[in-house]
Amino acid sequence: MQLEIESRKKAQQELHDKVEHLHTTLESLPQVAFRADAFGRVTFVNKRWFQYSPCPATFPEVHPDDTSMENVWTDCIDSSQPMEQEMRIKEIKSGLFRFHLLRMIPVKNKTGIKSWVGTFTDIDDQKQEEKRKDEFLSIASHELKTPLTSIKAYIQLVERIESKQTESAIATYISRAHDQVCKLDNLIADLLDISKIENGKLKMNKKPFDMEKLIENVLETIHYTNNQHDLKIERQGDPIVKHVNGDAFRIEQVLINFFTNAIKYSPKADKVILHTAVKSNEVYIGVQDFGIGIPEQKKDRVFTKFYRVEESSVQFQGLGIGLYICAEIIKQHHGTYGVHSTLGEGTTFYFTLPIS
Ligand code: ADP
């Protein structure tokens, strides 16, 4: 009996020490930290908590436009998985909402979840920095667009006058200037698209369109803009006879982007293959190249903003925004997109669009 009491006391002391240790750790963190029981009732808070909440039992006030704490708890308890959520919480002293990253980690024992450990990390400065960068991008691209439009118009005017005379050196220079201005125009259009995405203003103008006609236009554009003359574009798969509902201008932009990349990132190859397939409820379009390929672990990141694969970024110029815009366009069409690639052998970028 005495032995049993002793061992129970020892176990209790050990548990107490562990909890103490956890609380000391939470107290030493630079974040707001807390512990809650399996039902989401707060059992411990560190000192920083009081910058955002007057008492341990109340969670900091969350911005009305963000996910509420009740919803976060419901998700946590339902999933029993670690969770991350960005939200704005109100600082008591300033009365201002600051962006925080809430992380919740379940603490499990043999029978299931015993408690949760949570932290709020202040990411407000980072968020404000991102916002300033986006605003700068938006203003800069708008400001660049206006003078460029008039330069383009003047070049076209001179081109028209000059083309009346036969093959002069000046006509060649003007044509080159025109090409470069068009490149600049495309870059600025991409930058403008980025700021539209950030502001939720990249709107699709959807109506039924003929995909084969679109493909024809794209191939013609690629033919005129591609300076690798010996590159062939093959076609494999079914013709897309059904009309697709979408923004033809934006889908054309995606396909041109896939082709431009396929050509740019396969300087030694002599062909690119366009794959098309029609299933009962979707169309598939893929562009396959035989170029440098993408390392396996970097494949999924190519669709994120400003991402460029380091290995190739020195050799090939770019801003790392084309695929990000493509992904957004396809998402807005409720389609899917992706990439298959083998390093040194080639890459296929594809998208699918629903047909209904
Ligand atoms: P950019 O080409 O201007 O850098 P993108 O958003 O179009 O920007 O592409 C992002 C990155 O993905 C590129 O920098 C490149 O590293 C990689 N990438 C895109 N297309 C291909 C391709 N066909 N083959 C190999 N790498 C590619």
Automatic annotation (TrEMBL):
Indicate the segments forming the Histidine kinase domain, all copies: 139-356
What EC numbers are recorded for this enzyme?
2.7.13.3
- Superkingdom assignment: Bacteria
SUPFAM superfamilies, A to Z: ATPase domain of HSP90 chaperone/DNA topoisomerase II/histidine kinase, Homodimeric domain of signal transducing histidine kinase, PYP-like sensor domain (PAS domain)
Catalytic reaction equation(s) = ATP + protein L-histidine = ADP + protein N-phospho-L-histidine
**Gene3D superfamilies from the entry?**
1.10.287.130, Histidine kinase-like ATPase, C-terminal domain, PAS domain
Domain PAC stretches: 83-135
Keywords, sorted A to Z: Kinase, Phosphoprotein, Transferase, Two-component regulatory system
**Gene Ontology molecular function, alphabetical:** kinase activity
| Pfam families per UniProt | HATPase_c (PF02518), HisKA (PF00512)
Q: Which PROSITE patterns match?
A: HIS_KIN, PAC
Protein name per UniProt: histidine kinase
Q: From what organism does this protein derive?
A: Niabella ginsengisoli
